[in-house]
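Subgroup meeting minutes
Present: P.N., E.W., G.H.
Scribe: E.W.

1. P.N. recapped why we're keeping a running log of single-chain structure predictions: easier to compare across weeks, and new members can see raw inputs and outputs side by side.
2. G.H. added today's entry (145 aa).
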Amino acid sequence: MSSPAEACLNIWFIVDQDSRLIYRASAHAYALTGTDDDKHLVLNSLAASDFHLARHFSLSKYKTTIVDAHGRQHELPGFFNDASFEALFPDILETICKGLEEEFPDQPQIRPTGSAVYKLQIPKEPYYVLTFLMEDDSGGLTALT
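Output recorded in log:
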């Protein structure tokens, strides 16, 4: 008997090459079975390319303050630095999970008592692989290692 599929995630954060600020998030869900090591191998192998097909999530409610060359402070909505990442990530993860789960299709089941429908759900503590991508001046994305 095979183990039930679990909704697992690849999550990407895009970093601006010049400012080193995070300004975009993307995610893609997969229904995977097996051990955590199995899931990690699959997600890691897909992380290098599947961001092209991932759903984008707005970061507009987050902001950071920068100081320009003249010493003036400017707030940048939709941007944050890596120092803020750890504090912001749980909220962003929750937004991503809710958004992706809304798109999961209903799955019909045939039972001896009739038909039923279920929908895969993302666990409260989902298994995910997190990848940071650097965007260069021409818009190309490269994984940060």
